[in-house]
Give the backbone structure.
Amino acid sequence: LVGFHPNPQLAKPGEDLRPLLRALSELPATRVVIISGRDRATLQSWLGDLPIDFIAEHGVWLRTAGEDWQLFQQLRNDWKRELRPVLELYVARTAGSFIEEKDYSLVWHYRRADADLGEGRAREMMAHLSFMTANTDLQVLEGNKVVEIKNAGINKGTAAARWLARYQPAFTLALGDDRTDEDTFRTLPETAYSVRVGTGARSLARYHLASPVAVRQLLRKLLG
């Protein structure tokens, strides 16, 4: 719905998106769910007043429209004290990079860093953290200009599967633009319409759209 931005807090929905999401949610027998890696506080501040469902932090937090946030399952976050200094080391070595801390994950962003330096540091960090988290219940993920550490076994796909089992929709349309969205595509039934947004990435999705602009055009067509 929104393109990538060097500052993730500025990659927020524009005011033109809010009425579109509201209109979709008001269609008969229709539910809109936002599945995001964002923390729940950010999603709440951006779109929390809309009658839509949320899955935050890659599946850690779930909120049905009009209800309170709930944990997908009980998780640990005491590991952040040990691993955050590692991320701080890479911030010190990579100008333009920074850390985002969520309730149950840590994220190292390098979109504002020199491209070659950032990619090199990301490879180093992946190897470093993969060694440190071996034989633990943690997972290290590489996303679009980010490296994230989170609890293993919880992802967008597991949360989407629970949502689908609860509502059993007759029609499902899922759109995503990140590697982590592949977990959702993998979970969907064969009858679902899965769409990868963006260019150049291989995907499990059945269809492809070039940009968030094309996504909004598609959603407006669904409204008739």
Remarks:
- The domain at 80-151 is CATH 3.30.70.1020 (Alpha-Beta Plaits).
- The first strand starts at residue 33 and ends at 35.
